[in-house]
Amino acid sequence: MSGVATSWGKAAPYLRSILRIVMGFLFMQHGCEKLFGFLPGHGQFHLISSAHLFTLHPGLAGILEFGGGLLILLGLFTRPVAFILSGEMAFAYFMVHIHGGLWPLVNYGGMAVAFCFVFLYLSAAGGGPWGIDSLRGRK
Length: 139
Known about the structure:
Oligomer: single chain
Helix content: 55-70%
Largest sheet: none
Strand content: under 5%
Radius of gyration: 16 Å
């Protein structure tokens, strides 16, 4: 059993890179929806005007989600970007979702909670070996 555990343990950094890439890709879609009206999910966001671009929601949230998601996907500045995005998702949960009830299943905040904790993990663990940070010598 320890041989399997050892072999599987060696895959952990590469699986962390895959987790980072998938989460970055998923997160970018939320930004695309807010900024460009592309891939509309819930129909609640439309292409925003430049007047609303730097308002907290959907402008700043869209910028963080699209730009931050792209940086996470590429593995560039992974730790600080993941930390900021984790905070954004905690903020989103307590400012938006919590009004729909306490439980994430009820208030549709499950993805915000998942993003929050995955990004918190990546901010501590790093993005893994498959990313620009690792090419630049950042661990």
